Amino acid sequence: MDLKKNTEFVFQQVAEASREANRDPASVSIIAVTKYVNVKTAEALLPLGVHHIGENRVDKFLEKYQTLKEFPVTWHLIGTLQRRKVKEVIPFVDYFHALDSLKLAQEIQKRTDHVIKCFLQVNISGEESKHGFSKEELLELLPDLAQLDQIEYVGLMTMAPFEADSDELKQIFKKTQELQAEIREKQIPNMPMTELSMGMSRDYKEAIQFGSTFVRIGTAFFK
Ligand SMILES: *Cc1c(COP(=O)(O)O)cnc(C)c1O
What we know:
pyridoxal phosphate, 8-stranded parallel sheet, 8 strands, 9 helices, alpha/beta, binds pyridoxal-5'-phosphate, TIM Barrel, about 15% strand
């Protein structure tokens, strides 16, 4: 594994995809998803220009955070969060990407002493195995979610099905972007909805075409 070469490649590819989409490369933040590697390897990314670290599990998030918290890193919890684990992790999270129920939002509201930036996870493809709100469900719950003033709903997060082809990916990302705009236009104070968390190693190019502002990339760094 050549970390330096992989990192340069990821940064360069994301910049190129941004330019192809007529977007400023600076408008796309790259989250290095470090779940495949130990703390030492994660730390080695920092001098290479990585400023965002993402983990999908609470225990691994806390392990990396405790060791690397003195570095200038923005911390992303990107995976499913059980309600009983909210209080041990949420104080250290800068962005939580997988808010997928009203009950979880209420628990976050209860357990935090500062405003937490959250992405609402949507399941646009309707795939059974995926977490997230359906479009209809989310639109119906917005008034209840909006009452939770310790949460800033920065945007939507989605994960495309593993087997999706390029056309399906584009459909999913496009629909997510349209739903983001629909919610943003409601101008709800704690729902700025300016961000989109979409795109992983295999589909970040398509995601950037449809407005992604945070790509979550693991494999491409560590292969
Ligand atoms: C692992 C993971 C990623 C990164 O996936 P890669 O295919 O390794 O780039 C992104 N998002 C979530 C939620 C993940 O769990």
